[in-house]
Structure formats: C-alpha cells, structure tokens
Amino acid sequence: MQSFLYFMNSNKDHNINAIEKNTIVTIGMFDGLHIGHQHILDMLLREAKNENLHPVVVTFDLHPRLVLGKTDGQFRLLTTQQERQQMLTLYGIDTIDWIHFTPQEAQLSACDFVRQHLIERLHARAIVLGYDNQFGNKQHNDFDHLPELARQEGVKLFYDTPVILDGIEVSSTQIRNALRQGNLPMANQMLGAPYAITGTVVHGRQVGRTLGFPTANIELNDNHKALPLEGVYAVDVLLDDGTTHRGMVNIGPQPTFQQATPTIEVHILNYQHNLYGKPLTLRFLQRLRDIQQFSSAHDLQQQLQHDMDITANL
Fold first, then answer.
1. Phi then psi for 184, rounded to 5 degrees?
2. pLDDT in tens, 257-305
3. Which are the contacts of 69, defined by CB distance < 8 A and separation ≥ 6?
C-alpha cells in the first residue's frame, strides 16, 4: 500500500506518519466534488470543530472502476486527480490522504480498510460516511459490521443524508449521465459550478481562421476526462495569465468540411494572441445547438455569428 499526504501551505509531500493528532475522516472518490460531496465536507469540518479533531479526506489516485476493469471503455471522470486536489484544498481541506488503488487494495474488507487505514494509520476517532457510501471487498460483505467495529475502537460514526435536486439524488453518476445527454443545466446545478475541462492548445487545420472565427484546438490533459454531448457551447475560457474570456466551443466533427474526426475547438471572443502550447480551461455555460452540416461556408459563417451574439450576451 502506498499513500501520501498533501498539506495546504506546503509544497512538500509529507509521509503519512506525520499525522499525530486524532482525526475525523471521510472517505470517497469525490469525483466532481458536487453539492452532495460538499454537504459531506461541511459535516466533516463542522464535526471536526465540535469534536476537536483534525479533518482528513481519504481518497484514491485512480478510480476503482478503471483499475478493476468495471467499465465498458466509455467510463469518464468528472475531475482529474490534480483537479480534485485543488478543489478539496480550496474547500478548506488541508489534509488529503491519497491511497494508491490497486487490485490488492481492493481485496480489503470494509472493516479491515477502516482498521488499517483510518484507525491505525490516521488515528481516526470519528468517521463521516456518505448516505450511499460503500467500500471494501463485497465478497467479505462486512460493511454493516462497521458500527460494531467503531464501538470496539471507541470511534464515532456520523452519517450524511442525500442531497436532492428536482427529486433526484445528486451523484457523480447522475452528472455523467446529464453531460452525456447534453443536459448542461442539470450537470451544472448538481456540481454547484460550471463543468470544466482543461487542455493544451495544439495546431489544427485553421479552417476557422478562413471564416473569420479563429479557433484554438484543445488536447485534453487526461483522456479519461468526461466531455459533454457533441455540440456547440458557450464557455468561459480561463488562460494561464489569470484572465477569463468568453468563448464558444465546438465539440465533435465538422461535417460542413467533411471532417469526421471529433475535435475540441474554441473561438475566444475579441482575442487575437498566440496560444499555441499554452494551457487553458473551459467552463461550460450553455449548450447552444447540435452539430450541423451547412450547405456552404457562408451559411456556416452566419450561424457562427448568431452563436457568437448569444454567447456575448450571456
């Protein structure tokens, strides 16, 4: 088992043994850090103060579904490891225990996981569990024995409740489904913020420039990152210089120019500077339309102007 900690206000990784205080711990993948996750973190921070314990989030570097092959090859992440680290830190979690997830790690039962990782290593005196929290090897089937283990070890258990939005329990799965279906309003509501992707600007065919709408071609930093349904979207573009600009992005093929290979191309409004090789982040604000094939470049130009007018006035 490999594990390491990130501490806010420090640029160095600290060994897990650096924790000497008694802790209150919550465990989960926290993919997307949606409003349901935030509800759990609020409880963690609140009870940490009430119980005079140090709050710790335990999570995994790799998603168990990817490691264990429990996916059809289409499974995608809402957040990369780096994004989760940044979001958790900004939320006020200064100690994150990253567990390197392996098939061997997956063999641990729920009780063994809690005993070895949370109680013995992290000195947990309290644990916050999500309403649908399930971990540990299902063959051992001892998750329901956690209350007994907690009593034996003198550990308090706190149980969070689900967050309901329009009659639906907020979850990472629901958000992935919403993105896949192009339901950006639902995805963003559940996330509590616009969905975002980050990539690097690479050279493209420069077709947009000939139309008067130059675009930056984006190569994702992580191919496991989820993309919204193919289409045209209004976005905010965050550049590495700290500035934010409005833009419109095409995700998918370009049938007007007989290009079937999907790409991510963003036109930044009123921006002319060279971005090749630079990182940028897209925050999705609104889905404008489906991918369309136009009869001429002129018709496409007119549609792009219409798209830009909507985008500029959001």
1. -65, -40
2. 767 788 999 999 999 888 999 999 999 999 999 999 888 888 999 999 9
3. none
